[in-house]
Amino acid sequence: MRRLSRKSQGRKSPGRTSRATHVAAAVAVLALAAAGCGKTSDEASKDDGKDKGSAGSSKYDGKGIGLAYDIGGKGDQSFNDAAYAGYAKARKEFKIGGVDMEPGDGESSADKVQRLEQLARQGYDPVVGVGFVYAPAVQAAAKKYPDTTFGIIDDNTVKADNVVDLVFHEEQGSYLAGVAAAEVTKAKHVGFVGGVDIPLIHKFEAGFVQGVKSVDPKIEIEKRYLTEKPEEGGFSSPDKGQNAASGQIEAGADVIYHAAGLSGQGVIQEAGSQKVWAIGVDSDQYKQKALAKYKDYILGSAFKDVGGAVYDLTKSVVQGKPMQGEQRYDLKSGRVGFSDSNPKYTAMKDVVAAVEKAKKDIISGKVKVKIAP
User: Are 86 and 346 in contact (CB under 8 A)?
Assistant: First the structure.
């Protein structure tokens, strides 16, 4: 039995594993439509949604969660993998099905619309677009499937009764990264590598620079954006990240913070190879297996709990009370912060204390973090 429409529920309108080739992605999409089972990854439900329901989920009649990755896909050790962690946790905890889908190389907005609409048509609920590039697709699919809850990460421009904007105060975690970088640099010279020159990544830069300057205004900061547009590979080219990090290290930087998705792997690899500090982003990159060889040089990560946001949204849908509108996470919520997994970091008591003080000052409102350079 289909769940009641949003109107009858009384809902009120509020005020990237390896990347597939474009051909493979298209075949997967066609297979989804033809077979009606949505199996596009090894994590897809094997029983086509027969494991629906869990404690507190009697109102849920969806097939499971549908997750559509951003550029770089699953295996980026950062943004997309963070979303996957929340997807996997929700499936396990709520005993629901699910399918996670890779982006195609050079795909169009129409491809994204088709992907989201097929997930909704197959009965997946919620359907989550991982990244701001899904905004037009979410807008279109949500209108066509008003009884499905759609989530979009890192975008708050889509306003609809059945759309949840999952956004973060990235600048706050970046400020903490800046404080940590300023505290550990011996050269008084640090670096920032952004994946794409867009407002979202400007927030990372702004917070980082402000954090560095709060410790020592005289510290020199290298800044580099890999591309102007996402489709140019700024978030999906480790070689670009490696080259950028190499240049900054050659210029004198001994701590480099990246906000570059999959490209950030190259930043961390170069920093580790050159034995200088790297600061990760989104996920706790010290714990990423693909980066284990370099983890001793990962000071920490300015994380944003994308997985937690995906989990929160799924939980609300499963329990019959879907979230609505904009959900913005910050330091106070614990969904944004600075990871301390590296024992070398925790051993530096003065550095840890400085970061903790900065965290308290932001939460209390004493420090206001900028969102633009």
Answer: no
Question: Roughly how many angstroms between the first and final C-alpha of the chain, as a whole number?
Answer: 52
* pLDDT at residue 58 in the model: 52
Tokens matching residue 157: 């421009």
Apex 134 CA angle, 131 and 138, nearest 5: 125
Burial class, 111, CB count within 10 angstroms (exposed 0-12 / middle 13-18 / buried 19+): middle
Nearest to 133 by CA among 70, 182, 86: 70
Distances (CA, A) of 58 to 8, 62, 316, 317, 339: 18, 11, 12, 11, 37
**């969904």: which residue's tokens?**
335
Asked whether the beta carbons of 226 and 233 are under 8 A apart, the reply is yes
Share of the chain above pLDDT 70, in %: 84
Question: How does pLDDT run across 218-229, given as a tens digit for each residue?
Answer: 999 999 999 999
For residue 368, give every residue at least 6 positions away whose Cβ sits within 8 Å of its Cβ, in sequence order, or none.
Answer: none
**Residue type at position 235:** F
The size of the chain, in residues, is 373
Number of CB atoms found within 10 A of residue 55's CB: 10
Both tokens of 50, joined, read: 């027969």
The structure tokens listed for 126 are 């919620």
The answer to whether the CB of 369 falls within 8 A of the CB of 170 is no
- The conformation of residue 168, written as its DSSP 8-state character, comes to E
Query: pLDDT averaged over the chain?
Result: 87
Q: For residue 52, is pLDDT > 60?
A: no
Per-residue pLDDT band for 71 (boundaries 50, 70, 90) equals confident
Give the dihedral of Cα atoms 197, 288, 183, 209; nearest 10 deg: 10
| DSSP state, residue 373 | -
